TrEMBL record:
PROSITE patterns, alphabetized: NAC
SUPFAM superfamilies assigned: NAC domain (SSF101941)
GO biological process: regulation of DNA-templated transcription
A GO molecular function held by the record: transcription cis-regulatory region binding
Entries under Pfam families matching the protein: NAM
Organism: Punica granatum (Pomegranate)
InterPro entries: NAC-dom, NAC_dom_sf
Keywords recorded for this protein, A-Z: DNA-binding, Nucleus, Transcription, Transcription regulation
Gene3D superfamilies: NAC domain
Residue ranges occupied by any NAC domain in the UniProt entry: 16-159
Protein name: NAC domain-containing protein
Length: 159
């Protein structure tokens, strides 16, 4: 094993074999990473960092990633646009993430376990934002792993 340059932060280097690539499937991201993170906030994945997407511009994300050259993975708490509402806040100082297309269902075998939403970053403010080439895929638990089936200890407080 050797230390791979350019992977991780200076204080969080990851020792990996030459040629290692982190390319999980959508189902693996939901079942083996996101579900475990929701169940245990102390869950740690060496390839996935934590970031507040509302305080990070897309061009800053590569510096915050633990690994990756053109794809990066992060855990992020979903921010609400309004304290009592259900709408998600996807705005940053420089722009906003806009959902595109239809959400994709993620299955483990025949069971629905999650959903994948594709978002594109726009500079400026809606509705006059300028589309960029930054694309993000947002994953959420659904089906048998959805919020309603989780134990109370795993559910975040609304306050």
């Amino acid at each position: 094993m050797e230390n791979v340059p350019g992977i991780g932060k200076e204080d969080h280097r990851i020792d990996l074999p030459p040629g290692f690539r982190f390319h999980p499937t959508d189902e693996e991201l939901i079942s083996h990473y996101l579900h475990k993170k929701v169940m245990d906030v102390n869950f740690w994945a060496s390839a996935i960092g934590e970031v507040d997407l509302n305080k990070s511009e897309p061009w800053d994300l590569p510096r915050k990633a633990k690994m990756g050259e053109k794809e990066w993975y992060f855990f992020c708490i979903r921010d609400r646009k309004y304290p009592t509402g259900l709408r998600t806040n996807r705005a940053t100082e420089a722009g906003y993430w806009k959902a595109t297309g239809k959400d994709k269902e993620i299955y483990r075998g025949k069971s629905l376990v999650g959903m994948k939403k594709t978002l594109v970053f726009y500079r400026g403010r809606a509705p006059k934002g300028e589309k960029t080439n930054w694309v993000m895929h947002e994953y959420r638990l659904d089906g048998k792993l959805s919020h309603q089936y989780l134990p109370k200890s795993a559910k975040p407080s609304p306050f």
